[in-house]
Amino acid sequence: MELDELKYQLNQKLATDHASRTDADIAALLKKKTSSVIGKLKRSLVVEMVLCVLFSIAMLYVCFVSDYWSIRLYFGVFAVLMFLFTFILYYLYKRTQKLTSSHQPVKANLQSAVSLLEEFVKRYFQFTMAMLPVCFVFSLILSSMEPISVPEVDKFVLHYFSARWQVLTFLGVYMIVLAVTLYYFTKWYLKKLYGNYLTELKKCIEELG
Amino acid sequence: MPAEKEFIALLNEHQRIIHKVCNLYMDAHADREDLFQEITLQAWKAYAGFRGDAKFSTWLYRVALNTAITFFRKEKRKPDIYSTESVPDFGTSETYDPIEEQVKAMYTAIGDLSKIDKAIVMLYLEDYNYNDIGDMMGITANNVAVKMNRIKTKLKESTQKYMTPA
C-alpha cells in the first residue's frame, strides 16, 4: 500500500487529540517557561551577564580599596576583562532573541541555531583559556615585584623547598598541570552541554543537503 | 491584551496542526505535552513578527516544525512501537480490517523516519505542493521531489515489515 492511498486516514489519525485545549489552557501555557535548548541558553546568558556585572563591580571595589598596588592592578585588569566579556554575552543574547522571535525556513533556522551555539561555545572556551595566562603571568610578575608575606605560605615553602629554583619549578609544574586540566575539563564540559545537540542539528542540516 | 486574545483564538482554531506535529515527533504522552507547550510558547514569541503575508496555518506549520526538529530530550521516554501510547487509538474492532491494519503499519513506519523526513511527509499529507514544501524546508522543489520518492519507497518497505499476517 502506497502513502498516497492512505493520506486521508493518516491525516485523521495524526490529528487525534489526546487532550483538546481550551482558550484558558492555551492562555496558561503562554505563562510557562520554555524548555528548548536555545531558550535555556538565553536564560543562562542573562544569568552570566548579571554575574559578570556583579563580579566586575566587586573587583573594581577591591581595586580601589586595596593597600597593595599589585592587588589593585590585578583586580583592575580582571574587572575590565569581565566587563568586556559582558558585551560578548550581550551580543550572543541579542542573537538568541533574534532566533526565537523569527522563524525562518527549517534549514536556515537550523543553520542559525548551530552558528549561535558554536559561537557561544567558542567564546566561552576562548575566555576561559585567556584567563589562564593572564592570571598566571600577572600573579607571578606582581608577586615578585611587590611580595606580600603570608606566614602559612612561607612555612610551607621553607618546609618543602631549600632553593628558589625549586619553588619556581614547583609553581611552573603546578601551572602547567592546572592549565592542561582546565583545558580538557572545559572542552569536556562544553561538549557535554551542547556537543550531542550540535551533532544532531548538524545531521539534520546535512540531510537537507 | 488584544494581541494575546487574537493569538489564542487563532491557535485554538488551528491547534490540530500542533497535535499532528506532536503525535508525529513524540512517542510518549508526557513528551507530546511538553512539545505542545514548547510550540505554543515559540509561536507566541514569534507572533509579533507574523505579518499575515502567509496563511496562519502555513506560518504555524513552520514554527511547529522548527520547534519539533530542534527539540531535544536528554532522556528519551520511548514506549514500545506497538504500545497504545505511541500509536493513536485505531479502534478495537473484533473483525480484521485490512485498511486499518495498513494505516497502523504506515503510521508506525512514518514514526521510524528521520526528523527531516517526518516534516516532509507531514507537509505532503497536508497537500502542500513541492514548491511550498521547499519554501518551508529551505530546499529546492527538485530536492523535495527526490526526497519524497525515496521516502515513499522506504515507507512501502517498512509498512510490509510492520504488517501482521491476517
Structure, described:
The complex is a heterodimer of chains A (209) and B (166). Chain A is mainly α and 209 residues long. Chain A contains seven helices and no strands. In chain A, α3 (37-65) packs antiparallel against α4 (69-101), α4 runs antiparallel to α5 (106-145) and α5 (106-145) runs antiparallel to α7 (164-208). Chain A is elongated and about 90 Å long. The mean pLDDT of chain A is 87. Chain B is built from seven helices and no strands. By secondary structure, chain B is mainly α. Helices cover 67% and strands 0% of the residues of chain B. Residues 80-84 of chain B have low confidence and may be disordered. At the A-B interface, α1, α2, α3, α5 and α7 of A face α1, α2, α3, α4 and α5 of B.
What is the largest interface, and how many residues per chain? A-B, 50 and 66 residues
Our Rg estimate of chain A from Cα atoms comes to 26 Å
Q: Can you tell me the residue ranges of chain B where pLDDT is under 50 for at least 5 consecutive residues?
A: 80-84
Estimated helix fraction of chain B: 55-70%
Rounded Rg of chain B: 17 Å
The H-and-E topology of chain A, N to C, reads as: HHHHHHH
How far do the termini of chain B sit from each other? Answer: 57 Å
- Per DSSP E runs of 2 or more residues, the count of β-strands of chain B stands at 0
- Form type of chain A: elongated
- Classification by helices and strands of chain A: mainly alpha
| Rounded average pLDDT of chain A | 87
Low-confidence runs of at least 5 consecutive residues of chain A: none
Mean pLDDT of chain B: 84
Into which percentage range does the β-strand content of chain B fall?
A: under 5%
The count of helical stretches of chain A stands at 7
